[in-house]
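User: quick one, sequence for these tokens?
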């Protein structure tokens, strides 16, 4: 982030604009929305700008710029078409530590105005730091289409009720959750559908119903195989609502960046050789935080119901009568195989697919090996990297061809993805030489041969 986003209250405060042409006019129109005391300094002024200042009680000083013109404005906008004058204005403002925007000269700006989406008090500003203003404008157009004009009424309606809510819900976190429920409810449909605006008594009925509920809830969310763009919309929505996030080792840093900024972050670990928190401790934390009225995000790599112990955690929540919801994620097997160019099923290669975990409580893999040796079947092994040698040996010993294709994929779906392919007889050596590390997924079957044709992500 090159520029820190900030909104400044300039109501009834002095703002100086230097320049009197069309550029200055555009800036003054924008500034007047926030009701400052505008002073325009210029040798000449357009009739439109002159009339606008007169209508809004602004001040016009007809003269060329000098250092003495900058006294005590809260901010300055330089909108002349003279580079040397703009640079002089910048130097004076910089010396006096007054924020300045020099139009179309980002190197002379201490602040930029950005592209703005406005619904009365609701304002969204988009900036590229002057590097791509057209892109910022295009994004503004997209956001404009998403936000109904009626939100101007909605934001004022909510603002008039803030004090009532504050007096009746003393705890700050519970107030935030109430407002989240309010803005997601059917109650506000009247604003977006242009029906009659609800009365205060309508709101109080809604308030009493919401305030009688326990706010504590657990979100069991699948974060997918690693690439943040593979998150579901529902997952992203709940990630932005949580008060506490308990996350596993397989959740990527890119995805953690999307969790609500001020949420409490708790690392649960879950590596094969390192359990930062026991499953029992995790269960206890989910229950404890929810009983405190908090919204708890349990964020798991892949899908929570595929080797994610989601079922165990739900059993604990149900026993304690904790409200919860489950959001499936793209499983590691599905996502990683797709990005590796290896379909798990194929008419000519595999009519079935078996998911296995290489992680057992006693540290050793113990499959019913004969059941794995099935023609035209794909095996997908989670968390099996440390047992790769034992896995391949047992498959061969129980009848699988030592020439059977196999792939090991590290950090699948991400920019750091590494794929090593080989055969059962030689894959261990190849993986060692490639220095493959966890997290890694193993795929066994003739479908692996299709990677030569279908590899699209590298």
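Assistant:
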């Amino acid at each position: 982030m090159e520029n820190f986003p900030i909104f400044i209250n300039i109501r009834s405060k002095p703002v100086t604009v230097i320049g009197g042409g069309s550029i200055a006019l555009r800036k003054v129109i924008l500034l007047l929305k926030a009701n400052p005391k505008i002073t325009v300094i210029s040798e000449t002024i357009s009739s439109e700008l002159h009339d606008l200042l007169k209508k809004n009680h602004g001040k016009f000083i007809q003269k060329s710029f000098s250092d003495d013109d900058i006294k005590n404005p809260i901010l300055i906008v330089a909108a002349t078409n003279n580079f040397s004058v703009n640079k002089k204005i910048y130097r004076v403002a910089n010396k006096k530590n007054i924020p300045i925007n020099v139009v179309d000269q980002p190197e002379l700006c201490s602040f930029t105005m950005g592209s703005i989406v406005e619904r009365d008090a609701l304002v969204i500003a988009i900036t590229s730091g002057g590097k791509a203003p057209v892109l910022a404008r295009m994004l503004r157009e997209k956001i404009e289409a998403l936000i109904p004009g009626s939100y101007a009424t909605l934001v004022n309606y909510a603002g008039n009720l803030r004090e009532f809510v504050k007096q009746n819900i003393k705890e700050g976190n519970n107030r935030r959750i109430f407002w989240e429920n309010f803005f997601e409810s059917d109650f506000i449909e009247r604003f977006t559908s242009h029906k009659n605006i609800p009365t205060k008594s309508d709101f109080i009925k809604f308030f009493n119903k919401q305030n009688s509920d326990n706010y504590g809830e657990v979100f069991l969310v699948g974060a997918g195989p690693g690439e943040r763009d593979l998150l579901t919309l529902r997952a992203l929505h709940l990630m932005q609502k949580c008060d506490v996030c308990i996350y596993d080792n397989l959740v990527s840093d890119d995805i953690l960046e999307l969790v609500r900024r001020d949420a409490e972050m708790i690392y649960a670990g879950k590596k094969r050789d390192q359990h930062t928190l026991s499953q029992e401790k995790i269960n206890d934390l989910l229950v404890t935080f929810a009983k405190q009225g908090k919204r708890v995000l349990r964020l798991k790599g892949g899908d929570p119901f595929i080797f994610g112990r989601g079922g165990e955690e739900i059993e604990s929540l149900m026993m304690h009568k904790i409200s919860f919801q489950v959001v499936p994620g793209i499983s590691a097997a599905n996502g990683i195989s797709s990005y590796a160019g290896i379909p798990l099923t194929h008419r000519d290669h595999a009519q079935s697919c078996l998911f296995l975990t290489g992680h057992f409580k006693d540290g050793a893999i113990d499959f019913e090996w004969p059941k794995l040796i099935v023609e035209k079947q794909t095996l997908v092994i989670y968390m099996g990297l440390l047992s790769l040698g034992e896995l391949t040996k047992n498959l061969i010993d129980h009848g699988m061809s030592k020439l059977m294709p196999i792939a090991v994929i590290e950090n699948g779906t991400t920019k750091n993805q590494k794929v090593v392919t080989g055969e059962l007889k030689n894959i261990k050596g190849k993986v060692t030489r490639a220095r493959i590390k966890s997290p890694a997924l193993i795929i066994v079957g003739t479908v692996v041969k299709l990677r030569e044709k279908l590899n699209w992500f590298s």
